[in-house]
Amino acid sequence: MSIKTIFLLLLFTLTLTANERVISLSPSITEIVYALQKGDDLVATSAFSLYPKEAQNLPVIGGNSAPNLEKIIALSPTLVIGQDFSHATLEKLKRFKIETLMLKLQTINDIKSSIIELAERLHVSSKEVIKSIEYAIKNATKSKKPHRVMIVYGLHEDLRSGIYIAGKNIFFDDIITLCGNTNAYDANQTNQPVLSYENVIALNPDRIIILHSDASNSSVDKEKALSAWHSLPTNASKNRLITVVDESYIHIPSHRVALTIERLCREMNR
């Protein structure tokens, strides 16, 4: 082997292993980068990237919907990673010859595929990360008596202002099915529909699970809010099957969807 060939191979190896300068445009992507053991390559993240704790020490380039382009460009990133809602931002960055990657993190299959795609781009293995999700899927607790489940985003005292729920083609819908149940919302128009309380009554779910965060909404009166839900004439209210789940990872479509599968299956089937 010639000296020139050895030099080129060495240069190629160093290029692959050298730290990149990666910017994440969403908390989900931040979590996945750390899960792939590439957190040291991150030079900035989006707002609300709280996990793992190390991410909180990184510069913030703005929120999901309107990141600061000047800050991003000033950091000289080698790769900027966003989700589909960051499409416009990623297109603008391409004009500055910055490499971008757009991931889809809507369904469980999307999450798995995106983890594999990102791992390949970062030249690392996704095997262990994917294995944890597959394990959660395989061991999802099935309901002995299938029922119609409604997953609600946020706990509010006034139900007249619109109720956001998990619709179709989203990982919460996948989890409802994995747990042996069906989504009470059976239309396909949107993955995050907004309902009135009359709509909820018409759907008449057997179980209602409300995703709430004390960290972001500590002012809500839980007793008053649950009282409002129990006042609606539904099977869930009649059978006292309205519960609140407060977990920091529950809304995040990252590798931690494995935890969400286990937690929500346990809640649905207890």
From TrEMBL:
It comes from the Bacteria. It holds the Pfam family Peripla_BP_2. Keywords: Signal. NCBIfam families: TroA_like. This is ABC transporter substrate-binding protein. InterPro entries: ABC_Transporter_SBP, ABC_transptr_periplasmic_BD, Vit_B12_bind_prot. Residues 21-270 form the Fe/B12 periplasmic-binding domain. The keyword Signal applies. SUPFAM superfamilies: Helical backbone' metal receptor. The lineage of its organism: Bacteria, Pseudomonadati, Campylobacterota, Epsilonproteobacteria, Campylobacterales. Transmembrane segments: none annotated.
